[in-house]
Amino acid sequence: MTSVKGWAGALLGVAATTVLFALFGQLNPGWVWLGAVAMAPWLAAVERVSSARGAVALGVLLSVAFTAAVFGWFPGAIAAYSRAPVWLCWGVFLFIAPVLELQFLTAAWVRWYARRQVGEAPRLAWVPPVLTALAYVGTEWFTPKLFAETLGHGLYASETLRQGADVAGAPGLTLVLLLINECVVSVAQGLASRRSLRLGPVVLAVVLAVSGWGYGRVRQGQVRAAVHAAPSLVVGAVQANITNIEKLAAEQGTYEVVRNILDTHYAMSDALLRSAPLDLLVWPETVYPTTFGTPKSEDGGALDDEIRAWVAERGVPLVFGTYDLEGEREFNAAMFLGPSATGELAQAAYRKTMLFPLTEWVPDAVDTPALRAWLPWTGRWKRGPGPRLVDFRLNGGRVLKVAPLICYEALFPSYVAAEVRQGADLLLTLSNDSWFSGTPAPRLHLMHAAFRSIETRTAQVRVTNSGISAFIDPAGTWTSELEDNQRASTVMRVPAADRLSSLAGAWGDWLGPVALVLSVVLGVWIRRRGVQRSGAVPV
Predict the structure, then answer these.
(1) Which long-range contacts (CB under 8 A, 24 or more apart) does 530-533 make?
(2) Quick one: CA torsion of 187, 193, 195, 200, rounded to 10 degrees?
(3) Over 325-358, what HEC string results?
(4) What residue intervals traverse the membrane (predicted)?
(5) What is the pLDDT of residues 21-53, one digit of tens each?
(6) 429: nearest Cα among 378, 354, 498
(7) Contact between 522 and 130 (Cβ < 8 Å)
(8) What's the rounded Cα separation, in Å, for the pair 167 and 151?
(9) What is the pLDDT of residues 72-95, one digit of tens each?
(10) In 10 A of CB 248, how many CB atoms?
(11) pTM for this prediction
């Protein structure tokens, strides 16, 4: 592909795939079918590349175009957070796009390599498409992705098709979609060359699609049968929509801001308690923006005591986001306040482990005064000990086994699965999405959280400070939804459900490493076969 016409066709393929990705990623049920063809224009363009350099170039182009089209809201949000120029945030974001979306580069190069090794051998025509799909999924597993996105997430819009995520997570859906896209490319190539219709790819695409739909229907029925009508837990969720706390603290003083936050949450919680009997109250991430239990001042100690007294007086257990302190190490934490076996108020903390790079956490290896001076907004929290369950006693002596998640942690399937395997009754997510309010990010974050419930077949209560708060059932359907940038509260009724097992829940994100190993094995095999066929001596 060295001619102007060839590159024009390649650029058209990149543009077409980018547009299809953007539409498919809107999670609109009417666009679900686009997943079957979204990658096809770009794959067809890569198929015509004659050099490794050209293949990688197409991977770079798609990574940049995809990043700009699908995550174009992110540079503005980072600019607002860091107060850096928007143009600089855009420049850095697009510059690192090939690293964040490395799967495009890997898939393009692997496809070129596979075609070069198998040549025109008809019996090995399956190798380049399969190797491309495996390398794509395997690369996504080890790539440092900020948003952990994958093609399969677009199938969330289909209540039936998304149920397949309990086998191999969203990456499993991605693999199926990639193979269907490969079938589309093969059929299109046959038609373009004026040959007869290739029935093999058509049959494979139909089998994959029907199998996915059929499995989803079966699992839907099983989930519905497992979920009982009567609620086993009634949760009050408060979304006060108080944002820009740092700015407010600079203008009004920290104490006044914390005072307003608490008074608002007290009032909204009391209104919920008047509306219905509650088993549990939940406030969002960092709603109490200082350390709890280890106060830094007399005022802080008084506020700590006030929260404890409020909980004791209302007689309803409370979970809320705060900071936890151990020596000089500070953690983003979820605090559990509830009755103990002796009747007194008990306290337990869960510490967030999966912290967002730079804004929450800086690795010790690069944490220097120079970095802090250059990026003064970088976070200082430390990582928690990892996935753990909290046994939380409710009124009446019932113990609720909670798998806590704080914000970013909902993006990691293996982390969530590790918590659920400890015997969780409920996923409880506290989040702060206010920096991304007004963008697609809150809904995308909610979609990620919903996949964790599908994979583990565990109900989830998700409470955020500014939206979107919701209850998510084991089928991944969200209800009791509080929209973005809205002050509201709601009662979430969590039904009792029989435990359903799933491969994704048992093994976590298992497909990524398996796909990576299989792609290496297949790549080595065709390499050795090519060497043996040519009679060359490997070096």
Answers:
(1) 530/117, 530/118, 530/119
(2) -20
(3) EECCEEEEEEEEEEECCCCCEEEEEEECCCCCEC
(4) 7-24, 30-46, 58-81, 87-112, 124-147, 167-187, 199-216, 507-526
(5) 999 988 899 999 999 999 999 999 999 888 999
(6) 354
(7) yes
(8) 16
(9) 999 988 888 777 889 999 999 999
(10) 17
(11) 0.91
